[in-house]
Amino acid sequence: MTNRFPRSITGVLAGAITGALLLGAAPLHATEGGSGSYLLGSRDTMSGIVPPPGTYLSADLVYYTGHIDQLSISGIVLANANTEIFLTKINLTHSFDGHILGGRPALTITVPIVDGTLTFDSVLFGASRRISDHRTGFSDPIITPGLGWDNGHSHIAAQLSIFVPVGYYDLATVDVVTRSIDALSFGKNRFAFVPTLSYTSFSPKSGFEFSISSGITLSLRNQATDYQTAPEWQVESAVMQHLKSGFAFGATGYGYYQLGEDSGTGADNLRRQLGAQSLQARVFGAGPLITYATKLNGHSLSFKLKYVEEFGAKRRFESQIFWGNIAYAF
């Protein structure tokens, strides 16, 4: 027998992970599910460049690991929580011939696949237990149209990422027979829109690159939990030195800050459960980045590896992130 908690007390399902995306809080959590729809670190090197006309296929392989002191899921207090998340993102980009408003149009479709484990201590049915919840499934797919402009060494890209709520999502449940908690979801159960403006300065002669992106995540209300996530602002950057061998070395980093307070019945219940005055979140991340570009059968092939250590978190989980990417141009 499985009991579902009433929607009025589901609040934030802090075990949720999306394509995005991951669980987040330390020691409290903000934004529904403890994370935003947008995956921090998605834009780094060459973020301001829309590629030449053609079709591009890429895959991101992302591994997160971390610890959370305290969570509250549907009125159940979870302590000493650990997470391990494997995320695969399949990205298909087509850059079109011609121009719109003087810019080169492109469209990217992203399908995220998540394998996640949440392990925690919980007082369940009067007894303290160590509980593990594991699941594999699809997160919310992303559609990203954009335009790119080039002027010598300067490049600008304007994009709008649309997160479509069709990934796996369910309210937290308790199985009274096995005495277990089902807390993981992969989707957000609401649309989100992320307008982003990116700039890249790259000199082929010197090989020096500076890239920066700024975007705001605007989320619709989750009707299942009556939770409205406040706008989330993220800035991402990379500084790279490109070599004639095809290798490039540098560093990448980002900052995240939630603009305003979450609202709705779900957010109000969460504040009461945690005794928190505010749910506003912030986090920073930085780490090394290496890329390699070559040709395969006359087509461009590139690889990317990076490591990001998050710090300065407030009401959001501090992660250790290992990220690989491979991209091929048809």
Portion of residues in helices?
under 10%
What topology, given as strand order, has the largest sheet? 2-3-4-6-7-10-11-12-13-14-15-16
Number of domains: 1
The largest pleated sheet is described as:
12 strands, antiparallel, barrel
- Unreliable segments (pLDDT under 50, ≥5 consecutive)? 1-30, 72-77
User: What's the SSE pattern?
Assistant: EEEEEEEEEEEEEHEEE
Count of DSSP-assigned helices: 1
Overall pLDDT confidence: 83
State the name of the first-level CATH class. Mainly Beta
Structural class computed from helices and strand pairing = mainly beta
Assembly state: single chain
CATH superfamily assignment?
Answer: monomeric porin ompg
Rg from alpha-carbon coordinates: 20 Å
Shape descriptor: elongated
Strand content: over 45%
CATH topology: Porin
- End-to-end Cα distance, whole Å, is 52 Å
Keywords:
330 residues, mainly beta, Porin, twelve-stranded antiparallel β-barrel, three-stranded antiparallel beta sheet, 1 helix, elongated, disordered N terminus
Structure in a nutshell:
By secondary structure, the protein is mainly beta. Helix content is 3%, strand content 57%.
Describe what you observe in this structure.
It is a single chain. It is elongated and about 65 Å long. The protein has one domain: Porin. Helices cover 3% and strands 57% of the residues. A 12-stranded antiparallel beta barrel has the order 2-3-4-6-7-10-11-12-13-14-15-16. A 3-stranded antiparallel sheet has the order 1-8-9, with no helix packed on it. The N terminus is likely disordered. The protein has 1 helix and 16 strands.
